[in-house]
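#struct-queue
[09:14] JT: dropping the first one here, sequence first, then the structure tokens:
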Amino acid sequence: MGQPVRDYLLTLCVTAAVTYLLTGPVRKFAVAVGAMTAIRSRDVHREPTPRLGGVAMFIGLCAGLLVADNLHNLNGVFAQSNEPRALLSGAALIWLIGVLDDKFEIDALIKLGAQMIAAGVMVMQGLTILWLPVPGVGTVSLTQWQSTLLTVAVVVITINAVNFVDGLDGLAAGVVCIAAAAFFLHAYHLWYGYGIEAAAPATLFAAILMGMCLGFLPHNMSPARIFMGDSGSMLIGLVLAAGPISVTGQVDPDTLKLFEGGTRGATHAALPVFIPLLLPLTIIAIPLADLLLAVVRRAWNGQSPFAADRGHLHHRLLDIGHSKTRAVLIMYFWSALIAFGVVLYSVMYSTQGSNWVLPVLVGLSAVGLVLLLLPRFKPRAPRWAESFVPPRYRRRRRRGHGEEAEAGGGAEEAAGGLPFAEGGADAGAGPEAAAVPAGVNGATALGARSRFTDRGKAGSAR
């Protein structure tokens, strides 16, 4: 069977096109039925925005699976494995719960139970972790209960990690798309690099997930015209978890010929066996860190882990002075660095050519830290370059009686020192900003956050 690069690309494009074209009508439907995200004290958006974006994403998922089933190089996945049907069954259940939540705001514990049931449905149809490769021991077979509990835990943790990170325009869809792209490269390398056909379903799931996110992102980037809601965030979280669940334990050490070439050669060749244990954590490293920090923070403050607050990573980036767009791009950068870094290291390490990978990753991490702390430094451009940079980087000039003002940018200092984003400023600006009219969906609106009450449900990402 030839390498189905074009078939994967076609599946991705069809999924993205269906999602993109349906998101507009879904937005109008959400407005008509009143599925709107109310403004709460922890939110960044400044105007009620329709959700239910997960409806278009779910139809895109169905379209991608349908197209793949009719392609010569991909229909073997459906003939040899029941995992695509298991994914569709679990996705349909979690999507339905998400749609009801977007409209009626279901309790957080009920959603948690629904997530467990959706994971159980996938387990019953064969999408489960059957073996675990343990370093120094080999492949360990799991009992039915161990397999079920581990699979349910992976699904629930991934779903809630994605849900927690869904707090800024385009953030969750972009981070998941980056994670899916990294996992696609890993699964594809297992399939065609080592001839492991068991990695075929995971490769297909990653390609379809990329299409779902890419099709939705143009509608969700700042200023967002629609939110994915829990119907979308829980859906892409479940699909993201399905890939690692499918491929973990499916790599046969004998297939990789681990014991050829001495001990060092065996160590290099064995890395693809163990990387599926690490990759699920690395591809959602940013959402998972946000989830763990939120649970610890709320428990430390005596709150329920499901109690909503304004202490997520993207909120902290806004608090130190980043614009909404820059905060999203920074989280994109770190997600890509961690996910692609691990995949690249695994591929290069298995071929004994990874000496340059670690220094490159360290250098990029240093760049990321500089970007992360950039608002603390407030650099100023020289006089001759002031006309080429934004007002916030220009030097102060005196205007009569020793009064100072920023050249062309005094409003920034009045707004609390936060740099302006493209088309507006970050939420929570000073009182002078209250007179500025709202733009599209409130993305350019300014105003004091305290005038909004927290009317949202517990555990919601927005």
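[09:21] JT: and here's the second one, same format:
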Amino acid sequence: MPSSRIPRRRPAVLVTAAVCAAVSAALLGTAPAEPAAPADTAAPAENGADRARRLFLDHGPKAAVMTAAHRGQWRKAPENSIGALRAAFADGAEIVEVDVRVTKDKIPVLMHDATVDRTTNGKGRVSDLTLAQLRGLRLRAGLGGRQAPLTGERVPTVADAMRAARTLGLVNLDQAWEDREAVWRVLEETGTVRNGLFKSGAPVVEVRAFLGRHKDALYMHVVEDDNAASVEEFGKSRPPAFEVVFDDVRDKVAAPAFVRGLRSTGRVWFNTMRYGFSARFTDEASLIDPGRGWGKLIADYGATVLQTDNVETLRSYLSKGAADPVPPGAVRVQAEEYAPGGEGKAYHDTDDGNRGDGPGRPGENVDVCDHDGAVVVCWMRGSEWLTYAVDVPKTGRYTLKVRASSPYEPAGTYRIAYDGGRPGRPVRVAGTTAHHAFFLQDSRDPRQLTRGRHTLRLSLDEGAFQNWNLDYLQLQP
């Protein structure tokens, strides 16, 4: 569609750390503690885990919306690592979602996939490896992938994770239902029964049997159209939360009356990471406009827990009512909003048509993709270029930053030219470990610009490997 019909986007998550580097061991600190009351009158202090449990069990009309971090804060540490768990809590999440697998010697560990291939420097199925063998592996940064850098983090056990979370918050034990008794024993042994959150879409009779054996277990039931009737099967003994999964707003479980019924007795949890979990109400849609994602789920669907890949921005939205603003004095241009003029004037693309699945301009060859709500220029190839018009608000020195993603390392290089001048030095695009993992990357190529309109050409080096996605460009003073 024409550029004028593409919605302007609000800011996305801004990440200042270099994406390609291995995960930093330094984590965010917690806020200073309040001064203690005199010993003879002091009540026991409520830690983060106590608060999270109290909030989770509160389903009143004024219950605060809670943040759940998907696989931990993988933007700062490997997914499902102790570093990712701690960073997520430090960044404001009350709940951290982890994935559970069991080793050959029956030890529950954190691992999403059935194999270790994507997230470590090893190969093989978790169920075919002993804990000792897993401990010898190193986790890859972020969301992993064979080109993601290795870190110093190791595969943690569920016991490791629960000990780390003991005073910090709740842990959503995804994929643990099949091995629930083994995981329950870990919670008992580590003194973290209050922290662990089980979930499943299992038959209600199976759920009741488990909860009957373990009265203190915290449980959430997963509902979609296929098992929507299970809600009524619980009768008056409903669990304190339901995770609702729908890929179409016309689904039975997305009906206003259905979600209102869930909300009347417990919390309602939605996943916003990718298309299909909560229709198209995704993180990336929320970064364009919270009303297209998080805000819609809260206002129209009664969401009281949101699971996200963008912890800091969701926390900012919930506390301030808006996503992160464009930095003061900065200029942001969406990648698909390149200048008009067509091939050879506004852009150069090496193949015909729009190879992406996004809203490219009719009759033009720039490849535009839709990555779960992020509208991006994609299928980047050497010798291609794009021209943008930017309105600089004040004379000064500006540095270009690009919000980019790629599973490859390195992902490519680009050069910047202003107002028809010569292109600058090559700027390396760091891999981000996945096509849908966007990070803001600094070109470290400052330029002096006068107040007013300028043209900016971003060109890809010919002959260099290029395979990355460009979400937006940001000129920052």
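[09:30] RK: nice, looked through the second one.
[09:31] RK: The radius of gyration is 24 Å.
[09:31] JT: good to know. Residues 399 and 446 are 4 Å apart (CA to CA).
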